[in-house]
Design brief:
The longest helix is centred in the middle third of the chain and has 14 residues. The chain has two domains: 102 residues, no CATH class; 49 residues. About 3% of the residues have low confidence. It is built from seven helices and four strands. The strands form two sheets. Strands 1-2 form a two-stranded antiparallel sheet. A two-stranded antiparallel sheet has the order 3-4. The protein is mainly α and 158 residues long.
């Protein structure tokens, strides 16, 4: 998801199945789009388990899904888009990666790149990232090394 869509989520936007969002940059009429999120294979990186754990802390009061935390107090104030990017950079650095390379598109590009590397067809990647134009997915979201590794030209016997 785009950062703006992520921080705009409210508790009412999330359903056990399927997960949903109110709107996105491509949903200007606010009709809503459904974004499915599957369980992860590892407990530490399972997005469904992470949301469940956060909701145990956050509680079930209406409002922003992701809120600010000051010391040990949970606020009802939604996170800002810049906070999400900063948190992602901090996690990258903690994992030993170069956090300066994390941008606003890193979440979506990372998903698209990993999916392409795993052999997921482009139309499925575009459906998940909600891109209408496959060339945008290939040219802007799938990182060049993965695009080279998954190119069909390697199968042409050249």
């Amino acid at each position: 998801m785009r950062g703006s869509g992520l921080v705009a989520l409210t508790l009412a936007d999330v359903e056990a199945k399927p997960g949903g969002i109110r709107h996105s940059k491509t949903d200007q009429e606010h009709r809503g789009q459904v974004v499915a999120v599957a369980h992860g294979t590892h407990a530490a990186t399972d997005p469904i388990a992470a949301i469940a754990a956060w909701l145990m802390i956050r509680g079930d009061q209406p409002g922003a899904l992701f809120t600010r935390v000051w010391s040990s107090r949970i606020s009802d104030q939604p996170l800002g888009n810049h906070v999400v990017a900063r948190m992602l950079r901090q996690r990258a650095v903690a994992a030993g990666l170069d956090g300066t390379r994390i941008t606003a598109h890193s979440r979506r590009a990372g998903h698209a790149t990993e999916a392409a590397g795993a052999g997921v067809p482009l139309h499925q990647i575009a459906a998940q990232t909600r891109h209408r134009d496959l060339t945008v997915v290939v040219n802007r979201y799938i990182r060049p090394l993965v695009a080279l590794a998954t190119t069909s030209s390697k199968d042409l016997g050249l």
